[in-house]
Amino acid sequence: MQKLIDGVAKFKSEVVPEHQALFDKLATGQSPDVLFITCADSRIDPAMITQTMPGELFVCRNAGNVVPPHGQSIEGTTASIEFATAVLGVKHIVVCGHTDCGAIKGAMAPQNLDAIPRVQDWVDHARAAVKAAEATQGEGNVDLLTATERNVVLQMSHLNSHPAVAARLAAGDIDVHGWVYHIGSGDVTAYDSASDSFKSVTH
Ligand SMILES: [Zn+2]
To answer: Which domains does the chain have, with CATH numbers?
Structure first.
């Protein structure tokens, strides 16, 4: 814990003064262009991956970068999506999965989660992605990356069920992107709907 406290001290004494104009502006409001929905995994740093500054990404995180279909229950992700799209007016939504995702591993083998029933319930939101991967790879033969990619596509589709997103999509003034962050190489692949596959986002 001391490491975090030392970090706060350094942030206040060194980092804030370095970007004082930005932090002064941010002190009274935010107008991010992007809602970034990603996994809670400690290895993902949205700002580092995208080289963005505070105020640029409205970040919403949960296990497995899940977008629960609207109306299932009132929870934080749904509220964050509504606020970001209806109030902040973000122009883009990125659903970002990642390699070696524990939530997707759980969705592939929910029987291993009997001791953590809430996690088991939550990753059920990704179960349809595993079934979609099984359709092409066969039951029991699904590889983790394919299930992870299918989960991003699945959660992107769930966004359509959220009224605030549907309204913006109908108006044609918001774009939805699906990404997978590859831990280790730093690659980010993006969903290409025309080919129904993921390609490097930098090409
Ligand atoms: Zn994860």
So the answer is: 1-30 (no CATH), 31-200 (3.40.1050.10)
